[in-house]
Amino acid sequence: MVQSTVTLASAIGLRVKEGRRSRGWTLDQLAEAAGVSRRMIVNVEQGEANPSITTLLSLSDALGVGLPALVEPPEPWQVRVTRTGEGAVLWRGEHGGRAILVAGSGPPHVVELWDWTLGSGDEHASEAHSRGTTELIQVREGTLELLVAGEPIVLEPGDAASFPGDVAHSYSNPGTRQTRFSLAVLEPDVGTGASRG
């Protein structure tokens, strides 16, 4: 089953705290490195926050780990299987949409695989990710409007697109039916300092 929000928030909080402490950083140092408030760091570490994907990406980048390292249990490298319904839900839309991180790899070249659903009228706006990030999308059902650096692109079932994730972008469902798409994100050089702009 999908991880509960409380369980996931606690796990993320523990991993952020462990990552911060392993670097010998104070809360203020992590807040500055991630570009988020100290209060947000405290709330995340205590498992009291449901941070946005943008906040999680900022924290994982600052800690030099990929987003999957914050939401998946740490394990030695091996085959990892995520069964249907077991992924981490990291975003919920106002109209029934959700974004589930179903698989990912560790640094330095982090790859994330997402299963997105957008209800009619749902929209998710994303700030630019770290320099060199690439996103790939394939629509499985419904209509997806992709906005990349202000340019709208409409994708129908079976259509795919790749684009730079290091510019502002958004996904929205302009139709009356549910939209579902797969999203892969490649973030190179995580933790090496090379991906920072």
What does it look like?
The chain has 197 residues and is an alpha+beta fold. The protein has two domains: 67 residues, lambda repressor-like DNA-binding domains (434 Repressor (Amino-terminal Domain), Orthogonal Bundle); 100 residues, Jelly Rolls (Sandwich). The strands form two sheets. It has a six-stranded antiparallel beta sheet with strand order 1-2-3-10-5-8. It is globular. The N and C termini lie far apart (38 Å).
Layout of helices and strands, plus pairs?
Blueprint: H1 5-22, H2 27-34, H3 38-45, H4 53-63, H5 67-71, E1 88-92, E2 98-104, E3 110-118, E4 123-126, E5 134-141, E6 144-148, E7 151-155, E8 160-164, E9 169-172, E10 179-187
Helix pairs in contact: 1-3, 2-3, 2-4
Helical residues, percent: 25-40%
- Mean pLDDT over the residues: 89
CATH-derived topology of the largest domain: Jelly Rolls
- Which value, in Å, is the CA radius of gyration? 16 Å
Please count the beta strands (DSSP E, at least 2 residues each): 10
- Sequence stretches where pLDDT stays below 50 over 5 or more residues: none
Question: Helices and strands: which structural class?
Answer: alpha+beta
Shape: globular
Query: Could you give the distance between the termini?
Result: 38 Å
- In spatial order, strands of the major sheet run 1-2-3-10-5-8
Report the CATH C-level class of the largest domain: Mainly Beta
Q: What is the number of domains?
A: 2
Strand content: 25-35%
Summarize the helix and strand pattern as letters.
HHHHHEEEEEEEEEE
Individual helix count: 5
Largest sheet: 6 strands, antiparallel
CATH homologous group name of the largest domain = Jelly Rolls
CATH architectural label of the largest domain: Sandwich
